[in-house]
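Bug #77: duplicate submission created two jobs. Keeping one. Sequence:
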Amino acid sequence: MPPAAALQIVPNTPEPEGKRRQVRFRGRSFMALVLTPEPPTDDWLAELDALAARSPGFFGDRPVVLDVSAIKASPRTLAALLGQLESRGVRLIGVEGCDPKFLDGPNARLAMPVGGRAAGELSAPEPGSVATGSLVVEQPVRSGQTISFNGDVTICGSVASGAEVIASGSIHVYGALRGRAIAGSAGNSKARIFCRKLDAELLAIDGVYMTTERLDAKLKGKAVKAWLDGENLRVDALD
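Kept job's structure:
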């Protein structure tokens, strides 16, 4: 999930007449989800609807970047896809992976700038590297809260339904995990998720996710670990 940057213009306080006023620019960064449609797009949209139904409010007001490099989009099909996402309340801030000329009219604002670089606390690690930082949260994570960190995250309490923990490394929850846990968010397929009591709305590692309906019912309420086995997300009991 790469960060996006916004520009804030802050005028200086008025100066005596005859002096030139300056305009200061301040960078601001925030996290954006990346959606990558796969062909056929109708099936992909159906899966998106299923995810939204299983985890209401997953997208909320968070910014989203659409990467269409995996599909052969024409200006017409791209416009149709953007309309489908808009009707679902997905808040797009940019589109990448296509010719910027495909974005015209109101959609022209979605063209991503060329030559940018990742910035912010969840920048992608170099190949073969691992996150070395760690964050320990001693309070429970309440509904509506998001914990995001570049490294491993340890939650000493529980993660409530409607809360989420995002880490570029692994996630350890020493209480009940009822919300969402997203590990390996910067492209770390070796990340893991551990929790003492599983009742999660969503588990994800390096973009591969599993919602509560897909979890083995025998694992609910158990201490578990989750990891990637190739392209599959596996969850097993720790006991």
